Amino acid sequence: MLMRTDPFREMDRIVQQLSGTSGTWSKPSLMPMDAYREGEEYVIAFDLPGVNPEAIDIDVERNMLRVKAERRPAAKADTVRMELSERPLGVFSRQIVLADTLDTERIQADYDAGVLTLRIPIAERAKSRKISVGGTDGRKQISG
């Protein structure tokens, strides 16, 4: 209902993870996500631990959803010597093609405990509905 898979983007993510390189604005890292339907809305949850909510940018144009976030290093005193640094820093992004059955005008975004959650309602036109069948009471004869 929502996205196309890009195997090359996934390979880039694995290489970045193994090499320890961070994402930049021109080549951001991929952020992990879950997507599922819950009742009458579609839910997408992105893992963004340590990201300031002001550093998250969400944009929708037609049916293309773009989420971009930046995690910067914490300010450290001059006397601090880093022994181990495994937490990825830099820019993270995700582009998702949304189905026409989703109402992109009413997307809600919440950020709690390092998880950005987007709730996208199913459009009214996409919900199932009953159609009544009308009939005629009398018979008609075709002449010709």
Note down, in words, how this protein is organized.
The chain is mainly beta and 144 residues long. The chain is 9% helix and 34% strand. The protein has one helix and eight strands. It has a four-stranded mixed beta sheet with strand order 1-6-5-4. Strand 4 (56-61) and strand 5 form a beta hairpin. The relative contact order is 0.22.
Q: Main beta sheet: strand number and arrangement?
A: 4 strands, mixed
Which geometry do the CA atoms define? Answer: elongated
* Overall strand count: 8
The N- to C-terminal Cα distance equals: 51 Å
Percent in helix: under 10%
Structural class: mainly beta
Number of helices: 1
* Mean pLDDT across residues: 81
Give the SSE order as H and E letters. Answer: HEEEEEEEE
Strand order of the largest sheet: 1-6-5-4
Low-confidence stretches: none
Strand content: 25-35%
Give me the Rg, rounded. Answer: 23 Å
Q: What's the SSE blueprint?
A:
Layout: H1 7-19, E1 29-30, E2 33-38, E3 41-47, E4 56-61, E5 64-71, E6 90-97, E7 108-112, E8 115-121
Parallel strand pairs: 1-6
Antiparallel strand pairs: 2-3, 3-8, 4-5, 5-6, 7-8
